[in-house]
Amino acid sequence: MASLKFSDSEQSDAALLGLDLGNRARNQLSEKDQAVHNWYRFVLSFPPHLVRHYLQRFSASANTLVLDPFAGTGTTLVEAQKLGIPARGIEANPMAHFASSVKLDWSVKPDDLRASARQIANLAHHELTLLLDLAPALPTDAAALLFKNAISPRPLQKILTLLGYIDRERHPSWHYQRLALANAAIPASNLRFAPEVGVSRKQKADAPVVDLWLKRIEMMATDLDTIGQVPPLGRVHLGDARQPHRCLPPHSVDMVITSPPYPNEKDYTRTTRLESVLLGFLENKAGLQAVKHELLRSNSRCVYSDDTDDQWVQKYPQILALAKTINQRRTDLGKTSGFSRLYARATTLYFGGMVKHLANLRPCLRPGAQLAYVVGEQASYLQVHIPTGSLLATIAQDLGYELVNIDLFRTRRASKTEVDLREEVVVLRWPG
């Protein structure tokens, strides 16, 4: 198998885990990595240089297939495509799936993208000078999915007006234009990410939506100028990571580089809620629940009465004991909210979902496949320590995987407990 050749700077990145980078810098997007990745990213996405480290360590090449079963906004897929490595992803969040799909399409001509965007901007500007009181509005059911005051009326009016022209014109670069609008909607909104999503006390009565959008269009076009029109090597499937065998052929995957959600009480659909509603990926509560049913259960807001993933952990006494400790701690503290009562079950559902994922992944792997899972410990809620990496390693070994190592990526300070928690990379091998 021919190994990919890395530049000197990428060779230094490949030694990431031993670099003299500050702890925070290890998880940040560097300036040289912003192209394409910065078109749209989750808050706290894992960094491209970490992906490059494992691509080199696993001897990735143009003849290998990389999988990211929790693809998110496409960090692994985009980085692999930049290096000429075929990749596949699976993502259940429709907004994130859309974003990663656009980020893998480098076929549009940059000047065509710029020209069509300027034309649409002129039309939108003209209409917005006339529309002061009468404004397009979100359907009631869709608007109800947003945080109260997530976006002020005037910026919302501008976004919906601009979106109307984007959808009516339907230029070949239509999908780029929609993603750029999703990206521009955040600075036009009242949302804040710290890293939890919420509404800022200081709210914006107005925002230069069209100009923000044009800046993001120009960013995309500039990146495409640099990259050139390259045939796509990556593809992302809209699906459930717990069922990877439904998306992938048998014995097709050489390596896995991914970061599943952590069991940390973060509802990842809230992070993308505004964009998902604006672009029509979420239209009502039933649609939101349908999306959540396809997600790994990492928080109590995604727990449903018909969930059964916890059945997959009945043979793992460490996880059952952890759930018991969480429940006992809740009782000791007198916590009675629905959220607190569901926290132990969310934990067993999370690890059950990971058992299901790793079990169903096995038929898709080639013998000798190498895997890297970026995961984080938790201890903030109820101050019960959840050693995610070691538990995942135990599960994987029980399912027939070989544990190669648990690499320390970085530590992070738990905001509520002021305890340093490990973010780790569980490195596995599938013997076949």
UniProtKB/TrEMBL annotation:
Q: Where is the DNA methylase N-4/N-6 domain?
A: 41-94
Q: What is its EC number?
A: 2.1.1.113
EC top class, in one word? transferase
* Signal peptide (residue range): none
Family designation: Belongs to the N(4)/N(6)-methyltransferase family. N(4) subfamily.
Q: Which GO terms describe its biological process?
A: methylation
Q: Name one GO molecular function term.
A: methyltransferase activity
Query: What PROSITE patterns would the database entry show?
Result: N4_MTASE
Instruction: Please identify the protein, giving its name as recorded.
Output: site-specific DNA-methyltransferase (cytosine-N(4)-specific)
List the InterPro entries. Answer: DNA_methylase_N4/N6, MeTrfase_CN4_CS, SAM-dependent_MTases_sf
Spell out the reaction equation it catalyses: a 2'-deoxycytidine in DNA + S-adenosyl-L-methionine = an N(4)-methyl-2'-deoxycytidine in DNA + S-adenosyl-L-homocysteine + H(+)
The protein's UniProt keywords, in alphabetical order, are: DNA-binding, Methyltransferase, Restriction system, S-adenosyl-L-methionine, Transferase
